[in-house]
Amino acid sequence: MKKILTLTTMTILLTACGNETSSNSFNGTWEKVDAEEAGCRDSFTFKEDNKFEVQNSRLQGGKKLTGTYKNIEGNDYEFDYSEGTNTFNIEVNDDTMSVQMAGSDNVCEYNKVN
């Protein structure tokens, strides 16, 4: 019985730790590491209920966009907002986030600020 309890506990813990990039790890504001990187959005803010705000760079029109996002599979996320839909590959490692828009070679780096 003790072995079964230990195995069950280990399985639960490993399952909980298995997905590094969960939507909960996104929550908060992320700012661009390289301010000169014009092809990257200035910031992402992730809120409860899979809602987000994105501050586009001046090169991208400087507009703030809001909407919802959902996990498609793995690290791929679909962002829906009034301007349309974009798909991003997002990887979070502690307080750093790498974002790559589908179809782009550019990988943007962000630091969590809160």
Strand order of the largest sheet: 1-2-3-4-5-6-7-8
Total strands: the figure is 8
> Compute the gyration radius: what is it?
17 Å
- Span between N and C termini? 44 Å
Shape: globular
According to CATH, the fold-level topology is Lipocalin
What does the oligomeric state look like here? Answer: single chain
List segments where confidence is low: pLDDT < 50 over at least 5 consecutive residues: 1-21
Largest sheet, in brief, is:
8 strands, antiparallel, barrel
How many H/I helical runs? 2
Structural class: alpha+beta
How much is the average pLDDT?
80
Strand content: over 45%
Description:
- The chain has helices at 2-17, 23-26, and strands at 28-32, 43-47, 51-55, 64-73, 76-81, 84-93, 96-101, 107-112.
- With 114 residues, the protein is of the alpha+beta class.
- The chain has a single domain, classed as Lipocalin (Beta Barrel), CATH 2.40.128.270.
- Strands 1-2-3-4-5-6-7-8 form an 8-stranded antiparallel β-barrel.
- The chain is globular.
Could you name the key traits of this structure?
114 residues, alpha+beta, Lipocalin, eight-stranded antiparallel barrel, 2 helices, 18% helix, globular, DUF5640 domain-containing protein, plasmid
Concise overview:
The chain has 114 residues and is α+β, with helices and mostly antiparallel strands. The protein contains 2 helices and 8 strands, in the order ααββββββββ. It has helices at residues 2-17, 23-26, and strands at 28-32, 43-47, 51-55, 64-73, 76-81, 84-93, 96-101, 107-112.
